[in-house]
Amino acid sequence: MSFVLGLVVGLMVGVGLIVLFVKSENSRSKLRSELATTIAAFARMTVEDSRKIFTPDQYPSWVVFSNQQKLKWLNSHLEKLWPYVDEAASELVRSSVEPILEQYRPMILASLKFSKFTLGTVAPQFTGISILEDGSEGITMELEMQWDGNPSIILDIKTYVGVGLPVQVKNIGFTGVFRLIFRPLVDEFPCFGAVCYSLRQKKKLDFTLKVVGGDMTAIPGISDAIEGTIRDAIEDSITWPVRKIIPILPGDYSDLELKPTGVLEVKLVQAKELTNKDLIGKSDPFAELYVRPVRDRMKKSKTINNQLNPVWNEHFEFVVEDPLTQHLVVKIYDDEGLQAAELIGCAHIRLNELEPGKVKDVWLKLVKDLEIQRDQKNRGQVHLELLYCPYGMKNGFSNPFAPNVSMTSLEKVLKSGAEGNVLQNGGEINRRKDVIVRGVLSVTVISADDLAPTDLMGKADPYVVITMKKTETKNKTRVVPESLNPVWNQTFDFVVEDGLHDMLILEVWDHDTFGKDYMGRCILTLTKVLMEGEYKESFELDGAKSGKLNLHLKWAPQPIYRDS
């Protein structure tokens, strides 16, 4: 029944909103007539179907087993309504998107505005509808839409050298899912206070650019710059979790506005077995990370030259608005210098897979395209540590990356000095890494299991070298002769000056009289032991056919070094 309720509400509101934006009274009258016809047609269809299908103890299968419905009847009426939709939505889209276009305007352009914007005569086709049961006090509807339209969109572009270019946006092809939220439900017609709309998912967006009466190549790079600006504007103006709110009844609807809900702390640890994109030498990988793919929210790592198993150990922070639907995307590229970087592979993880306040250590397999899952080629893996920190989280939880962590006098000087550094574009440098955590790390190397043999007799004489990356302080275990499942139970203490950004490297070697053979390694950050204080875990060895290392880590902070 929620399907029927949501569909009726959606029809009434969708067309009712158009009435609000249509200025001509003649157009309003015609639109009301079309609206009445559409609602009546749906009502007749519902009544007739209920007489044929409904029984006191049985619902139709499409109610019970499916929440997606083909909407041929709605598309036929949308074609009749489309001239009024064009009049209303064109002005709405223009007023919403144009300020964002100016915000993302390329530096080579002096201005970027619409000189003409109409949606054309071809109506989109709705291919499915979903009513989401999310437990909220409202109705959430998602409409899947496909549109191969003939809009008339012309951008008025001016350069700093005085050249004006009218650029036409042509051949638009779009497939996506729009979300409508009707909240709050009230006992006054039309039974809800406001409606939110957003582009929930953009499956495809294709278009071409053409200079009216000219050549797009007249100014090098202008086409790519404008295309990037248009895509950024769409992402930042209407793509979920961004939403537009239209009040229907008087009231305060600030609770519907887009608000940050927490912070995602990401540590890009390393990658392994990356595909080599270079004919000579090895790839020079760097990573690009984002939760929302808009320019000022995307993060980029440093480039590791000539390496297919790079170690970054870089920390990034992202604002989260909707942990239930958002996800973190990681893309690994090969740096080609002056040429465009080449994609090695990409991966993503949904934020609803993270337990708030708990560090999640993950290896993600890289694929060619996140939308196409048929890729079987091995492109490598990327290693991340993730920590989602909701605002206002209690129960004794403390985010170790938060800027209000107690600091020594030296750290305060370092941090205040860093905050004074300003980039040329006016943005402050992100200096989260100036928060320093000192302490003693105790590493107990318990044992190893199923090591790969290195001797002719099918055995090995393994030992472990433990290294703190930043200080290069090293220790090593004793050698266990002729064993592939050695037991050490040795503990080593390391004084750590910067626990948030140091790394622990454990390498397993086979001892030989005339040398040594490499048997694998594992690289650990200290985030988890800082959060939990102590833990025991088994770690797979990288660079080995088999084997894992069993460790016990314990952290003892040194508050004596802190100011009171």
UniProtKB/TrEMBL annotation:
SMART domains the UniProt entry points to: C2
TM stretches of this protein: 6-22
Keywords for the protein's UniProt record, in alphabetical order: Calcium, Lipid transport, Lipid-binding, Membrane, Metal-binding, Repeat, Transmembrane, Transmembrane helix, Transport
PROSITE patterns: C2 (PS50004), SMP (PS51847)
GO terms for MF: lipid binding; metal ion binding
CDD domains recorded: C2, SMP_SYT
Gene3D superfamilies, per the entry: C2 domain
Subcellular location: Membrane
Domain SMP-LTD per the UniProt entry, residue ranges: 67-249
Domain named C2: residues: 243-364, 425-539
InterPro entries per UniProt: C2_dom, C2_domain_sf, SMP_LBD, Synaptotagmin_plant, Synaptotagmin_SMP
Membrane topology summary: Single-pass membrane protein
GO biological process: lipid transport
SUPFAM superfamilies xref list: C2 domain (Calcium/lipid-binding domain, CaLB)
PANTHER family xrefs: EXTENDED SYNAPTOTAGMIN-RELATED (PTHR10774), SYNAPTOTAGMIN-5 (PTHR10774:SF149)
Function field: May be involved in membrane trafficking.
Family from the record: Belongs to the synaptotagmin family.
Protein name listed in UniProt: Synaptotagmin-5
Primary gene name: LOC107815235
